[in-house]
């Protein structure tokens, strides 16, 4: 889990626009994106910043929590540590997406899946 701690800056996107369209969210291209993972007591905190907007999620592994997106979509998530991957299952209505994050040295790859659409964001540790 410690490998995920720190701040990650978006370096590359693959098929993210198609994924965002599939889930019904507008992608803000050209806006700097960072993700920061930290620990607060018994909870983990994930902060996602896109330009001037930020979303903070505070959670415990394997426990469902109320979640949303920067566009204020109401949903629920569960994040689990499976081997060296953080696997997030996000549900809203009857829909579900999966987000798999994996650290490899100074890079974190985030693979997102919804229906038959898949995309990736590759981050570099700051």
TrEMBL record:
InterPro entries from the UniProt entry: Calycin, Fatty_acid-bd, ILBP
UniProt GO molecular function: lipid binding
Entry-linked Gene3D superfamilies: 2.40.128.20
Family membership noted in the UniProt record: Belongs to the calycin superfamily. Fatty-acid binding protein (FABP) family.
Record's protein name: Cytosolic fatty-acid binding proteins domain-containing protein
């Amino acid at each position: 889990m410690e490998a995920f701690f720190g701040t990650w800056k978006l370096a590359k996107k693959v098929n993210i626009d198609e994924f965002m369209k599939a889930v019904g969210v507008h992608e803000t291209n050209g806006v700097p994106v960072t993700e920061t993972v930290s620990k607060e007591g018994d909870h983990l905190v994930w902060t996602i910043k896109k330009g001037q907007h930020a979303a903070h999620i505070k959670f415990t592994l394997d426990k469902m929590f109320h979640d949303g997106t920067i566009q204020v979509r109401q949903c629920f998530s569960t994040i689990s540590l499976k081997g060296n991957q953080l696997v997030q299952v996000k549900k809203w209505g009857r829909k579900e997406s999966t987000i798999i994050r994996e650290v490899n040295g100074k890079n974190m790859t985030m693979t997102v899946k919804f229906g038959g659409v898949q995309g990736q964001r590759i981050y570099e540790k700051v």
